[in-house]
UniProtKB/TrEMBL annotation:
Name assigned to this protein: Aspartate aminotransferase
Taxonomic lineage: Eukaryota, Haptista, Haptophyta, Prymnesiophyceae, Isochrysidales
Gene Ontology MF annotations: L-aspartate:2-oxoglutarate aminotransferase activity; pyridoxal phosphate binding
Domain Aminotransferase class I/classII large: residue ranges: 5-306
EC code: 2.6.1.1
Subunit structure: Homodimer.
Species for this entry: Emiliania huxleyi
One family name in Pfam for this protein: Aminotran_1_2
Amino acid sequence: MAGARTIHVPDPSWGNHGHIFRSAGLEVQNYAYLDHRTGTTLDFDGMRAALSGLPRGSVVLLHACAHNPTGIDPSGEQWQELAELFAGRGLVALFDSAYQGYASGDLDADAASVRAFEAAGVLPVACQSYAKSLGLYGERIGAVNFVCASREEAEAVLSTVKQTIVRPAYSSPPLHGARLAAEALAPSTASVSAPAGGSTPLSPRRQVLGDAALFAQWRGELRGMANRVHRMRVLLADALRAEGAPSPDGGDWGHVVDQIGMFAYTGLSASHVDSLRERHHVYLTRDGRMSMAAMKPADIEYVARAVRSVLAE
Ligand SMILES: Cc1ncc(COP(=O)(O)O)c(C=O)c1O
């Protein structure tokens, strides 16, 4: 990666990627990702062709899971093919992992992309955010992980990153968030009654990631959150079909269910989004991205009706 002047990001990508990389002095180029013919599916052939044409050593940003904004991820087989392509062509994989555990509800399933690359002999770099998965948006919780070929390489990477990025940029990381993540926000001992059977009450300071019981509880909560979002997808697709709203991609709204993560890439145009906002007070980003995490069962029918109405305009 040393000396890279360009980063390749999917078209489209999280809106902030361009700003971040340009402000770090990199040129940002897009590679094919969304199939613009449907507006709701992956253009895997285009993606493969674009990446196959890059020079060795090119740095490519990938979304580890729950691609933002589209909610469209490569399948397991496609990740495998990409991992082999990266290994064969000597491409550098920079993963943005902002939704591990939040996408499928399973921390391991959501890490499968990164692990497939590692297994294929690529040494991925993974930028990990815990903002969503730990519900700590404002605390700046994250890490950049470099998989290295040897201990010597790891020591050299750590020292370079410290000298060239960490020290000039922020020097020491914000600790408060990391402590919240590591130490459970458990109720005080006084307010926790010992469960029947007389086991010891919860300690107020135990590590979420390091304590088996709290880790299991957190995994369960992630599953609950991901399942709820998936249920909203199913309900919305059913309601849109029941309303007789024509899906913008000519399909049957199955993409709303198949996509993953917080967002549905509906296929609605900017003018549909404007009408939804102006006439119905339903708010999406102008690329047609709808937050499924913000949806409640009680909203579904209203939203489906509003969508049908703007599509008929
Ligand atoms: C792909 C992606 N990367 C990074 C982030 C931000 O992570 P953080 O809040 O830790 O900066 C987000 C969302 O906010 C995102 O969607």
